[in-house]
User: Fold Sec-independent protein translocase protein TatA from Pantoea eucrina.
Amino acid sequence: MGGISIWQLLIIAVIVVLLFGTNKLRNLGSDLGSSIRGFKKAMSDEDEKKDLPKEQDADFNAKTLADKQHDPVNKDQPRDK
Assistant:
């Protein structure tokens, strides 16, 4: 009492097959499987991205003030003192 028996599950399965047809159920199953596969792939790709170091958008080389004074940007123009 209260539980679903095997006969009730069988009747429900027959009704579902009659309503939707086997072809539509097969397509639904393959679509569900491919979406789960895609979700797992996206989750594993995200984990791999976390393991890799982040790349910088530009090349930032920090220079000290002394380096900037000894290495002028444009050598054609004289430096002001």
